Amino acid sequence: MLRIANFSYMIRFENVTKQYPTGNTALDDVTFTIDRGEFVFVVGPSGSGKTTLFRLLIRDAVPSTGSIFIGDWDLVNLPKNKIHELRKKSALFSRFKASSGQNNL
């Protein structure tokens, strides 16, 4: 069972880099924390890494380097059989999928 523990932070990126096989770097050494209860907007020009950031959060992609946590769940090392459970219980997944079909991120 997937359980998000009562951590002070909800989402944490630690030194995350995502480089695609083409050589394009979407995110380069990104570190941030989103605390429980915070409301965050992700904005930037086309190609700045917004979609990549969300794909990493829903484990639709994995970083080239770095760590990503939602509560105590390590998304980089999350077993494939737990990805569906994470997405099902996460508001991030449903809102991202709904908005990405209507708007460019």
Describe the protein's architecture and organization.
By secondary structure, this protein is α+β, with helices and mostly antiparallel strands. The protein has a single domain (9-100), classed as P-loop containing nucleotide triphosphate hydrolases (Rossmann fold). The protein contains 3 helices and 4 strands. Strands 2-1-3-4 form a 4-stranded antiparallel sheet, with helices on one face. Strand 1 and strand 2 form a beta hairpin. The chain starts with 8 loop residues before the first strand and ends in a 5-residue tail after the last helix. The model is unreliable at 101-105 (pLDDT under 50).
Describe the structure using short key phrases.
alpha+beta, disordered C terminus, single chain, Rossmann fold, 4-stranded antiparallel beta sheet, 3 helices, 105 residues
